[in-house]
Design a protein that fits this description.
Length: 459
């Protein structure tokens, strides 16, 4: 399919795609009801205004409460002086800003050449990506953390390494998963950045210990080690390796630890090769993939950490592979095994997103692709040649109603034909109470779509 060559044609195509995506997102995916944001909001309000303890709060009608390190609650303290509606609006704005920053970094210095048409197509594709739409609907923080981490990657690759590590350190203090990026700095032998990241993480954690000493002691000695506070390991939304093992009935720590060690060995080898080749985009992408795999619980919305991987695939010329994998990540296919993940079909289907993540870890291209520029490109003053600009992250999403694979791939690669195209060149006392009963940790208004469940695990 060829993209329109006139402004009128492009506007009509954009309106058609935007309408299709809007109808899809309003009817097919179930609304998550800002559940995680209501956890943050209720926790902070109870702590600041009602004398409650951070880790004692639960959303009304559920057993779920705050699970992040104490510094996360401290950093969310301003939310305690907002109304819930204002907090939701602020979360949407922050997530949109974080997404814009992520796309800007991944697209590279030539981002303007894609034009309004190309970026509109990218936006339509991103609206279908299940981890991303769940992040917005939950009011989650993962996009903000991804932006902090990629910001450090940009600093390192452009010779502005003086402040590199600050973003990673803050992200690691807010949530444990990004701490693996400190390991990346060590593997890359960026000692100063690793020291900065560690110091920032420790300083933020120390600040939280001064502000909420009791909560800090409880978290680091008890809550951090209790995964049942987060949810069931075998729940279908848990797309980590631990989730795969739990759905097989294997819940022993030794087997999981062995698998994690093997994955970390693969990660270290592949990341080192990427760093030696100067490919910081791939190095950061591989680290995000690995963090999702080795975390005990990786809910579907945590998989926004896969976005840099699609940028790497597109840059390396594997647009069809990127489009196919991206389409799979838009389908919500794992929920077909919500009730029963047994059998071969359950093993393969219920863990689909894990297989995508693992496959990307093993086969994601690293190193400079001929005729392309890394999104984290170095200054012209470096000795490395300066190839052409990298493409945005999004590829085809043909599994959904909306843009055809050719159209969205064109938006991702910047190779659409025709003159005049922006893509033509290569390159109350209860603060969370509501007017209706709260669902039990709803990922939507229906309990079927929850990333967490109040249903006890089978005996």
């Amino acid at each position: 399919m060829r993209t329109p060559t006139t402004d009128r044609g492009r506007i009509l195509l954009v309106l058609t795609l935007a309408t299709t995506v809007t109808v899809f997102t309003a009817t097919v995916p179930l609304l998550r009801d800002w559940f995680d944001l209501r956890v943050y909001y209720g926790t902070v309000h109870t702590w600041l205004h009602h004398g409650g303890r951070i880790y004692d709060y639960h959303v009304p009608g559920t057993t779920y409460g705050f699970t992040y390190p104490p510094f996360a609650a401290v950093s969310m303290a301003p939310m305690g002086y907002l109304g819930l509606g204002t907090a939701i609006a602020a979360a949407l704005i922050l997530n949109l800003a974080a997404l814009a920053a992520v796309l800007r970094i991944l697209a590279g210095p030539g981002w303007r050449r894609y034009g309004w048409f190309g970026w509109t197509l990218v936006a339509c594709g991103l609206a279908l990506f299940e981890p991303l739409r769940d992040t917005f609907s939950f009011g989650q923080v993962n996009l903000l953390l991804l932006a902090l981490v990629l910001g450090d990657g940009w600093l390192l690759s452009t010779g502005r390494g003086r402040w590199a590590g600050v973003g990673i350190g803050l992200a690691a203090a807010i949530k444990l998963t990004p701490a693996l990026f400190i390991g990346l700095l060590l593997v890359a032998r960026r000692w100063k950045a690793a020291v900065v990241a560690t110091a920032v993480a420790l300083a933020a954690t120390g600040l939280a210990a001064l502000v909420v000493p009791g909560a800090s002691k409880f978290y680091w000695t008890q809550a951090m080690w209790d995964t049942t506070r987060v949810g069931r390991l075998d729940y279908v939304s848990n797309q980590s390796l631990q989730g795969v093992l739990a759905r097989l009935g294997e819940t022993g720590r030794p087997l999981w630890a062995t698998v994690v060690l093997l994955v970390l060995c693969v990660w270290a080898v592949r990341v080192r090769r990427a760093v030696v080749a100067g490919d910081w985009t791939a190095a950061f992408a591989l680290t995000g993939l690995t963090a999702c795999l080795i975390s005990p619980i990786t809910w579907v919305h945590h998989l926004v950490w896969l976005l840099p991987s699609f940028a790497v695939l597109v840059r390396a010329g594997h647009r069809r592979i990127a489009g196919a994998l991206y389409a799979v990540m838009c389908t919500s296919v794992v929920w077909l095994w919500f009730d029963d993940a047994s059998g071969i079909d359950g093993f393969l289907g219920s863990n689909t997103y894990t297989w995508v993540t693992l496959g990307l870890l093993l086969w994601l291209p690293t190193g400079q692709a001929p005729g392309s520029r890394r999104p984290f490109s170095r200054n012209a003053s470096t000795t490395a040649p300066a190839p052409s600009t990298a493409a945005p992250t999004t590829a085809a999403v043909s599994a959904h109603p909306g843009p055809s694979s050719a159209v969205v791939t064109a938006a991702a690669t910047g190779t659409a034909a025709g003159p005049g195209l922006g893509l033509a060149r290569n390159a109350s006392s209860e603060p969370t109470g509501s007017t209706r009963p709260a669902a039990a940790k709803p990922q939507s208004s229906s309990s079927r779509a929850s990333s967490y469940t109040v249903k006890p695990p089978p005996a």
